[in-house]
Amino acid sequence: MTDDFLLETRGLTREFSGFTAVNKVDLRVRRHSIHALIGPNGAGKTTCFNLITKFLQPSSGAILLDGRDITRTKPADVARLGMVRSFQISATFPQLTSLENVEVALQRSLGRSFHFWRSKRTLAPLREQAMTLLDDVGLAFAANRVVADLPYGQKRALELATTLALNPEMLLLDEPTAGMGREDVARTVALIRRISPNRTILMVEHNLSVVADLSDRITVLARGEILAEGAYGAISTDPRVKEAYMGKGEPAHV
Amino acid sequence: MSKIPGALPARPAGSSLGVSRGLILVAVAAALLAAPFVFYPVMLMKVLCFALFATAVNLLLGYAGLLSFGHAMYFGGAAYVCAYARKELGWTPEASILAGVAFSAVFGLLTGLLSIRRSGIYFAMVTLALGQLFYFLCLQSPATGGEDGIQSVPRGLLFGALDLENNVTLYYFVLAVTGFGMLAAYRAINSPFGQILTAIRENEPRAISLGYRVAWFKALAFTLSAALAGLAGATKVLVFQLASLTDVSAPMSGEVVLMTLVGGMGTVLGPVVGAAIIVSMQNYLADVGEWLIVIQGLIFIATVSLFRRGVVGEIAARLRRGRGT
Questions:
Q1: Number of domains present in the structure of chain B
Q2: pLDDT for B42-83, tens place per residue?
Q3: Which of A116, A121, A144 is the best substitution to test chain B (most B C-beta atoms within 10 A)?
Q4: Which domains does chain A have, with CATH numbers?
Q5: pLDDT tens digits along A192-207
Q6: Nearest residue to A42 (alpha-carbon basis) of A253, A254, A245
Q7: Does the residue B156 lie in any domain?
Q8: What integer is the mean pLDDT of B174-192?
Q9: Do the chains contact at B8 and A144, CB–CB below 8 Å?
Q10: Which of B:256-315 have CB within 8 Å of A?
Q11: What is the spatial distance between Cα A209 and Cα A199, in angstroms, rounded to a whole number?
């Protein structure tokens, strides 16, 4: 049980013309845990995400999802295996309504996505589920609003609802609370906690109180390499982390 | 969760709106049916064929966000196939048109799979290159008649009964074909498939991250668009009794994009209005000769710099603003 890892990377490396953004990262995410990936800007967190979800091809190394090698799998197929990501910049479909955004995610399960001869009204059975998902993130009131008109925090919440619509076994959340007001942060933290049972979550997050609140385990990245790993208490007192995260000489108050 | 049903406002009710919309539809239908007795039917049919062609381009450009500069391939390719089947093989008009559409659909799928491997300007360049390739193939092939094209294609009897030599009869047939094509495009746009297509246009990485294999959606959109362009090209053959190199040329590809933009891409009626404007200009300004191309260029510049949404797009935007939403 102790080494039941849902996601594992072995020697994950990505070079961009001479610059090594991610260097031999061995990341292991335990099943049904919340694992945070933190580190200063430019540490390679988002590159890691892009590699794991196959939006970028690793230069070397391997990625295993539930023991299965996905190093050569295409990004859409990674999502189909049950690992779904969110993006750092709110990833929505701006000209669609909130409801339609969620429906786009839900309709894959119907297997009718190539049916160009059917009316969109055949998607009506998804509506109730879509509304429930919107309600979960506090967006039921904006169901019929075009997403381009929503404030940033609500777009982030919508993105979370869309991700959850796939009911993924594993979620990769790239800064889920970035740009949110305090109230929205609290709601999002509560939501992540609520959906976390029976799911595995890997998240990049800058808000350390969110990290402290949610994560079972933390990996600190610096300059593309793993600097430290452990529970929040151990990480927050690690002098190497303080130095990398806060800079030398500054008092650490994480 | 109790607020779910209430959160979905019903469509803005108002029987008056429904009635006026119904009246407009009846008026438009009456105008379309009476048109051949007022205007020259051949010109009307030309407008209809190009309206359908522009609708095909609009499906790809306006809803999938893919700009093709090679659509004359499918328009002209289907025209050649239809003309050949009709004249050389003696097939019925309806079978000849279907042959043209089938050719364009298959050809569209193959070339589409090639083109969608690139995006943006590179996609446009690949389609342009493929179009030029096909043009020279048509120039050299014995089946197309080279510089002469396939001339004097007999119109024949539709379903063995309706004489298409009669311009008015042919007009109603072309009207029906165009109507069918536009309804098909409208349905595709407003289908589960259309929703995913819009999502891909709006944010491709997000669509991928939700598990959609976007290449197949683009390929299907491309195929549908090519098939509709083929329907337009094959129907045009019956009108002009001619399939020629003009139909497969790069200027033809550019012209139909111009129609789509002038009318308003991403709107259902835009391509029709755009086709009507450009085709009537070509007809009524035939005397100015080469200057026509200059005028078209100016219109294009005016469209992209002054009213980017096109005629229909601008009107729709103004109506929305007028309603205060």
A1: 1
A2: 888 899 999 999 999 999 988 888 888 989 999 999 999 999
A3: A116
A4: 1-80+202-249 (3.40.50.300), 83-167 (3.40.50.300)
A5: 888 888 899 999 988 8
A6: A245
A7: yes
A8: 91
A9: yes
A10: none
A11: 21
Which residue in A84, A89, A95, A104 has the most chain B C-beta atoms within 10 A of its own C-beta, making it the best mutation to test that interface? A104
B contacts of A75 (beta carbons < 8 Å): 208-209
- Tell me whether residues B203 and A93 touch, CB distance under 8 A: yes
Which residues of B fall within a CB distance of 8 Å from A114? 193, 216-217, 220
Nearest to A38 by CA among A228, A235, A224, A221: A221
Judged by CB atoms closer than 8 Å, whether chains meet at A95 and B205 is answered as no
Q: How far away is chain A from the Cα of B9, in angstroms, using its nearest Cα? A: 8
CA distances from B21 to B15, B26, B166, B175, B190 (A): 10, 9, 33, 21, 20
Among A110, A88, A92, smallest CA distance to A101 is for A92
Residues in chain B within 8 Å Cβ distance of A107: 192, 195-196
The rounded Cα A87 to chain-centroid distance in angstroms is 7
Q: What is the mean pLDDT of chain B?
A: 84
CB distance A108–B1 less than 8 Å?
no
* Contact in structure between B311 and B274 (CB atoms under 8 Å): yes
Structure tokens at B119: 């995006």
A153 or A97, greater pLDDT: A97
- pLDDT averaged over chain A? 85
Which stretch of DSSP H or E encloses residue B227? helix B214-240
Per the CB < 8 A criterion, the answer to whether A224 and A11 are in contact is no
Q: Please check whether residue B118 lies inside any domain of the structure.
A: yes
Structure confidence at residue A247 (pLDDT): 64
Q: Tell which of A88, A108, A113, A158 to mutate to test the B interface (max B CBs under 10 Å).
A: A113
Nearest to A80 among B205, B206, B211 (CB): B211
The C-alpha atoms of residue B321 and residue B325 are separated, in whole angstroms, by: 6
Given pLDDT bands bounded at 50, 70 and 90, which one contains residue A1? very low
Range of the domain at B176: 40-248
Residue B151 confidence (pLDDT): 82
In a domain, B15, yes or no: no
List the structure tokens of A55. 């939006």
Instruction: At B22, list the tokens.
Output: 């119904």
Is the CB of B4 less than 8 angstroms away from the CB of A85?
no
B195 in contact with A, Cβ within 8 Å: yes
Looking up tokens 């609290």, which residue turns up?
A: A186
